[in-house]
Amino acid sequence: MDLISSSQIRAARVLLGWTQQELAEAAEVSLNAVARLEQEKGDARMGTLTKIVQALERGGVEFLPSSDGKGPGVRLKRPTKSR
């Protein structure tokens, strides 16, 4: 997994319209872990970060790496067309 920043986590959560509590529940981590990660207070455990990123991706966001001189980002995934 590429390193995901605290600002990307926060932006992804907001894009989904989730509260920190909703993210914590979706990721099965504590509310304090989400709050500390978003506020960049201390280092998050890799396992906690992985759970949070996976929950956000399941929720419908895609994390974007830095490229072409642009910083990292996040966007909503395109919905797949059903046939």
Topology at a glance:
Layout: H1 6-16, H2 20-27, H3 31-38, H4 46-59, E1 61-64, E2 73-76
Antiparallel strand pairs: 1-2
Helix pairs in contact: 1-4, 2-3, 2-4
How would you sum up this structure, described in words?
This protein is mostly helical and 83 residues long. It has a single domain, classed as 434 Repressor (Amino-terminal Domain), CATH 1.10.260. It has four helices and two strands. The chain has helices spanning 6-16, 20-27, 31-38, 46-59; strands at residues 61-64, 73-76. Strands 1-2 form a two-stranded antiparallel sheet. β1 and β2 (73-76) form a beta hairpin. α1 (6-16) runs parallel beside α4 (46-59), α2 (20-27) crosses α3 (31-38) and α2 (20-27) crosses α4. It is globular.
Question: What is the N-to-C order of secondary-structure elements (H for helix, E for strand)?
Answer: HHHHEE
User: Based on the structure given, which CATH architecture is correct?
Assistant: Orthogonal Bundle
Could you state the CATH homologous superfamily? Answer: lambda repressor-like DNA-binding domains
Apparent shape = globular
CATH class: Mainly Alpha
Could you estimate the helical fraction of the residues in percent? 40-55%
The largest sheet has its strands arranged as 1-2
Structural class determined from secondary elements: mainly alpha
Strand content: 5-15%
Distance between the termini: 32 Å
Global Rg: 13 Å
Low-confidence stretches: none
Total strand count, please? Answer: 2
According to CATH, the fold-level topology is: 434 Repressor (Amino-terminal Domain)
Count of DSSP-assigned helices? 4
Mean pLDDT, to the nearest integer, reads: 89
Domain count: the total is: 1
Biggest sheet: strands, sense, closure? 2 strands, antiparallel
